[in-house]
Protein 1
Amino acid sequence: MKKMILVDGNSLMYRAYFGMAHQANLTQNSKGLYTNAIYAFARMINTLVGRDYDNILVAFDAGKKTFRHEFQTDYKAGRSAMPDELRVQIAYIKEFLDIMRIKRYELPLYEADDIIGTLAKRAKEENYQVEIYSSDKDLLQLIDDNVKVILTRKGMSDLEVYTKESFYEKYQIHVNQFIDLKAMMGDKSDNLCGIPGIGEKKAVKYLIEYKDLNTIIEHAHEIKGADGEKIKNNIESALLCQKMATINCDSPIEVTIDDTVKHERNTDRLVEFYQELEFQSLLKEMSLKKVKDTDKDDYIVVSDPSKLNEILIPYSSLIFETPDYNYHKSPLLAIGIKNKMGNFILKPDMLYSSFDLQLFLEDENNHKSIFDYKRAYVLLKRLGYELRGVDFDLLLATYILNPSIAKEEFKIISDSYKYYDVYYDEAIYQKGAKKTIPSEEVYFAHINKKVTCLHTLKNDVIEKLTDRNQIHLLTEIEIPLSKVLGKMEHLGMKVDIDELNIQEKALNDRIEELQKLIYEISKVEFNIQSPKQLGAVLFEHLGLDCPKKTKSGYSTDIEVLESLRDKHEIIDLIIEYRQVTKLNSTYVAGLREQIYPDFKVHTIFQQALTQTGRLSSVEPNLQNIPIRTKEGHLVRKMFVPANQDNILFSADYSQIELRVLAHMADVKKLIEAFNTNEDIHSKTAKEVFGKTEITSEDRRRAKAVNFGIVYGISSYGLATDLGISNYEASNFIKKYMEIYPEIKVFMDDTIDSCKALGYVKTIKNRMRYIPDINSTVYQVREFAKRTAMNAPIQGSAADIMKIAMVNIDKEMEDRKLKSSMLLTVHDELVFEVYKEEEKIVEELVLRLMEGAVNLDVPLKADHSSGKNWYEVK
């Protein structure tokens, strides 16, 4: 038997949009086009077409007016208007269906349900098995022996399949009674009243007893009490609702069954569509562009070292290829070179056999273009060579132009410039258990495509940076910083294994102790890390009230647990158990796996990731060690100098974001306070509370709002942080803005500018694009406003730290100091310092951090030292 799939296009489209929109997650491509609905819709359709079928059609509503409006003019009048963010995506959704060669259809004055009902009827007559996909229960009336209705709850991963049998099991009535059920219940979403006061339970009860609506009306006088009166008083409403809810299965559709026959998708056009919308994951999944051994471009594999001298010329583009993300471990496969002499591939052994190549790489005056300088720097440093003379980096340049699209995957970068002739690394090397290194011809071709792209794009990208006055960000900050970070990564940070063993045992002992206490109090043994089992213990076994539920059951997230702290003694133990187990698995036992043979960890600083310009780190993440808890802070004790006679020295900016805010907003009182070295939190507390003498609690509250205001904190957020009422918090913020009126002016001006331009800027002209600032969705728009207020401040602080790092490294190198910069964590820098250089490093670091830029307020850096990182901070 043949199978036909019929899809309610409007239903899936809305489901696709709101599935992400309710989380304020309206994704956009680099041009600002909203893409969340297109992406989710494409994913659902891709899942569908992977199934076995012969015919398929997607039906859409043709417009607001239908034949049903002739019977009820306010039909569907209560529905909210379609969000503009969804409206702009509809044309792309329909284009996607055309590319997939899936028939789509709409008919003026009729709804998608009518098209589906009519085509389902015709298909049944031709002995098809029909599957209908929608989230609209109205379509359940179409169920019969040959028709299933599949309701989508969450994309195509959570489906509710209805047959005649499962329908009866769910509703305890038959499918032919469903329209009468709707007639009695009504439908608020369609503005159909039905019989007010008769809900699903009562409607089912009377349908079981009387079989259909007409019989119920005939016997209304027998139905006692209020229900009988409601039915008698709303007969016309019920009959109208019955008429309106009935799907027209004889609509005058012009589409035929033959029109819906399955066709192969337009593969090439689909690739272009995904590229245009920047759907990288869908492109990867297609696996369309397979590299073949015969896929050879015009390049020469150079095997004779004596020929390198004529090839290695200035203004060459270089690709250093590794098969793995972690370049601290991954082998070098080959080097790709492109310049005016042509395209060349060098095998790794050329590094050792060619003195010309070594000199070329280390020549500061031999200009080179690259993709991800830091990666290449560390890779070569590991092999015993230095890479100098890099003055263009495509990864960093793209990150500056638009931080939202810059990723470390080369193809994502190239696609953003509409340069598509590059493969995904995953297509070449695969991933997981399937990961492998293919033949040389395959990865040579891959390298050559990358280096050709790099060389081709370079001049246009430089021109864009120059036009936007951002070239200095690349050449004076980001590229020099790459080398600094590369040196830090290569040097690594030593781990005291004995201390690690001590802490691991202490944490395991505490975990075991907490587990025993939790079992004793609950009087039941269970998996504490299982949300499902924990929820059952807390809210069923112990009888606590659950403040929040999810689709899968009880919520036991930290917000829920915090709200229950004073309800039961077990809650504090569970919170601590989670903290300690996470600390152990991530930063103690987890850290052990990251230690190299030199007893160091070599983290990877992600320079082109965050939209604020800040640095992050992975493998391991040394920036997220939770130092607010005693156990978390102790983790820092494991990090020690490589030389036991040395010390660790730390310097971190004091209140840098507040100082940047005072400068950027020209806040007179803050500028005065910083310039006179007054305690800014005490000053704020005195001003807000109108006191000359303040308490520690007053200062704590002032500190919360001082830092919170930088992030656009709301009264609710401040109330939560301080444990006060929303009213108190609102008054606090209002008073704060009266004391520092320039801040509100600055915030308002920043938002207005962002609305007009689509971006905000740091003091060094780093731009962050925030297209959501003009969203019609309130939550999305408000989040964008907070982002717009914070981004210039946090981004400027990041710029300052980067400038300081570059300047410090340069002077340390010029002075040939033996001490080294090891780590950066937000506003902190950590150094390993030789004893004879302690005073030199202290003076140098503080001077260059505090003199990184000139602001209207002084920059201030605090410092400390110790035998391990714990003693330092």
Protein 2
Amino acid sequence: MDRTSPTTLATHVQGNETARPEIVSPSLDRMLELMVVFVLATSMAGLVLALGGLFQALQVVLLGAMSTLAYAFRFPASDRHRQAPNARHLLLLALVVLFFRIPSFNYVLGGQDEGVYFNIAANMVRTGGIVPTDAVLARISNTAQVQQYVSENYQQTIYLPGVYRSEDAVPQSEFQFYHMFPMWMAIAGGLFGIFNQLYALTFLSLLSVIFIYALALRISGKAEVALAAGLLLAVNPLHVFFSKFSVSEVPTLAFSAIGFAMLAGYWSAPTDERRPRWLVLSALAFACLFTTRISGFMYLPFLLAVSIASLLCDPDRPRARALHLWGVGVAGLYALSVAYGLRWSSHYSTDIYELSFRPLLGAHWKRVAALAVAAMIAAWGVMWTLSISRWRPTLARAVLVASRLVGPLTLLCIAAALYKGYQLGFTDLYLGDPWMATRWHLAGAGWRSFGATSLIVAAMYLGPPLFVAYLWLVQRRSGAPMLQMLSVFLLGFAANFALLQWFVAYQPYFARYLLSEFVPYIVLFVCCAWGATRSAVGKSTILAVILLSGVYAVAVSAAQYGKRENAGAQEFLSRATSHLGAGDVLMMDATAPPYGVSAVKTGIVYAFGKAAMNVNATSLMDDTYIARIAAAFDDVYLLTAKSSTPAGFDFVETERLQVAGFDHSLHPPVRASNQLDLPLYLYRLHASYGNGSVIDFGSGGAGVGWLGDGWSTPEPWGVWSIGHSAHIRIASRDLIGAEDLKLRLTAIGFVGPSHPRQVVRMAVNAKPGTTIEFRYPDATSQTIEIAIGSGGVGATGAVDVAFDMPDAVSPRALGRGGDDRTLAIGLKSAVLVAGE
């Protein structure tokens, strides 16, 4: 690669425009532009509808298609000489991508980010919105048992890992993470089924490869360079793994590649063929990125640098002004994304900003961050002012001089990473650290500790030769401005991974942070630098490195073949929930030997849409609590690791929870093993109320679930009948099942001086039974005993007790106030008694 000589800036910039790519049919380039429009329109429509609780997958896709059609009519194709991809290249890339990425991983268990994303999407498909559901809390709200339920199922500020809660008496919940990526999964889930929703990630993975290819074509103007970049990314083991693993790095890469490709397309187009709409599409792509991952703030310094460098260095002043406006627009869209996060993902946003900026900026990080933002805006304004003054040439030369520091600073980052690896492995600096030493066992691990440093892990996934080539090539300044800006972009992330996110606790999970920017853009940089190199020896050397790295990547990616992360989890949950109907609830024994209760519960609640709740040993023995839960649901099941049948339950079946996944180690994902393997036992509640349990008919009492027609709204003391007839219905599961079963009701009659007598006739399952009489003043309340017996269950599977009350009358008719309800009998409580 030739070094930049101290010639005029105009020659420096214009030299990039003289390299023209081979001309291919422009229709394919137009198709990619329309694909960008479809993806962006679908993204924004889907996110807005999801935030409004109106998400429907088909309607979102139709809105995206209609927007694309409108764009095609409003902006006809005009790219007569624009760079265009090669159809055979795109087909090859698509086939390679699909070969390594199908099937995807259905990560239905919760507990970690990938499971949370999957279940957010499933909830979106089921509810049309982003608000987490809690069917149990909804059914028992306004009852005395709410606080007991909340204390067992809501821990501090979370309902489940990844589902935050408010501090209200009745908690309000929100999902962790931004919603753009799960919205795309919900599109696939809504169209093809929830357990096919990960193929949205396959689509976004393909987009990321195609637009890295397109970006390489824009930067280099050479089809072979673009193909090399696309293929290297398509077979990269890090990209392959996380294209099947539901986290947001691949979608982030897809949106950034689209944004940069549209920006580069505008930059590289001849003056008469530039279209401002490409900059608009670029800005909207970054807006989608900002609502996919909160770490979009990492892009702001670079985007500011692009805008300032264009203002100062580009002799094409209309293009410079356009890029300046693009930078302003992108910054504004980022500000909107911050507001979005604080409004719809407030707990997560607050936590991430705290964790990101407090260690760097100190206790007053909010004030410092605000000042830094103000300083950036002021610097931006100053540079804009200077760009239209006589100082611009001087500042442009200063920018070019500063660009020479990118290479040395990159090497300095490598040195810093190696030094931190040395501190971790060979000093006692981290021996007392609860994470490095106790949890991850990395402190004092010698040379093994170096393998946990982020930049070494990046080299592992790129292949050491490719990483060394990057370090060599970044020292050799290119004459292509876009390639120089790419080196600046990579420098920012090299510094981040050398000094801040500098270690990878285990792979493959934590290596994902290297995927959204650092690894793929190093691939892009090396390939484009290869295209810009004029030396035959240098060109051949880099080509050899690219080929060697490609073989290495294929070998590591192929090691993933036939293995599935979270394998077996979906099948287990499907079997375990097969007995549950829409009105049933699954209790999960949180006191049994551990089996990842929260992880299993997350999948049951959101992926499978079933009501589930934690319960401890004390609550299982609390007849009143269990009775209230049973009254709210049709059937109650219990899932536990205990093999002994709990009192009041019947054994249903044993299901083995066997879940396989890739080993957590300091190596790429090549080995898989069972992560969970234990039997779980499913039981069904057959008697919600033990012998002698008191069932309250007051508001919030368990007896409210027995009330059929003919009753008023329950009050704290109990409930009044209204009208001349009423029914209570006791489900079979609530009966003890003894040979001699009696129901004892504590009741009061509506009697008084002006109406001293109430006659109440009762029937059990349409068979005449007891007749009682309330009299004033000596028999205003009574205990009513109704014989049910072992054969008392009727055809409906319940005991129906009917009350006929011919003397019912309203207080208003008796001159006792304005209450016009027709009252006869008031139920206070009941007791089921067996064997007396």
